[in-house]
Amino acid sequence: MRLRAKGLEVVLDQFYLDQHPGGPDEGWLGWSYSEVAKADKILIVGSPGWYRCYDGTEVPGSGLGAAAETRVIAQRIYNESDVNRIVRIVLFDSAARLGIPPDLQPYYSFHAADDFDSIVEWVTGTLPATIPAPLLNDWPATPPVLDWQPAGGGPVREAFTQLLTRDTPHRVLLISGGSGTGKSHLTRILLGLALRYPWLACGRFDLKSGADLEGEFARFTLDLRVNEAVHTTARQGFRDRLDAILSALRKRGEPTLLLFDTFEQGGEWARWVEEHTLLAIPRAPWLRLVVAGQQVPDPIGTAWASYAAPVIQLQPLGWEPWYDYGKRYRPDLTPEFVQQVHALSHGNHSLLGQLLAPHGLH
Known about the structure:
Helix content is 41%, strand content 11%. The protein is an alpha/beta fold. It has three domains: 2-124, no CATH class; 154-313, Rossmann fold; 319-356. The chain has 15 helices and eight strands.
């Protein structure tokens, strides 16, 4: 409806039914095939069901119209030698990025709410659908305004805001804290904030992933926009693959944020962070790093020491910040209840966050 309000012609089965209650005479299969074949621009609402249709793994008999559309979409992209000027994915939930089919991952995907103006610009051709301002090879001059949701974390918010600017004196943010102080929760929050800026390539790697390295690597590279490097190194060892990713990012030189969590459990991957990514910092004005853990790299005597902000030491929050946090979403919350659960959980950040956050923000 918002697109139609902009004066754009939007073809959607629901809109078609408003004017043709009996549906198309050629049937939904033929209608879907025909509309996708002649559309100037195609916006796909990213969902697990549509991804299954595209991959050919949907339950037989389900999503027949979508299945017809996906074949035409794939053929149209193929006909243009993979130069995709007609199709983009629109996400209502950023988590849906994880399911995007591999051959559509190289193309930029919009967030329905955050990127609405960019969607209109792409559909109308008023601006290229690549990476909006700021310039491709530069960071913004002014700090962004962050929609900060978690309880506490003021020093992290301030340091992270500064980190995302062109003239920041620091390119490395180190976050340390004991178990239950919310380090992993914060790195996920920071990644979510970074994903709101289409000009910023970003990825989060949990160094304790262990057995699920393949899945962690896929999640790490999902929004780094170096798909060619990912595909060409798929059969190599993880160390070689990480080296190839860093090399591709260095060659491109565009604003990039890398977040590494649980540093103290990283083993050889933690050494890779120290010996490769951190050492790249002095000659990489395009790169910003966040490293979190119960222990973090010691900058003293390193080549990147002058680029590191003072280590932020997280402490367990008292009950008051948790009460203020929960009160935003639960007006009937009482101080007594928060004090009680805070005492029973020993101030554990993850447990309190799960209990007091609204649905969808856990």
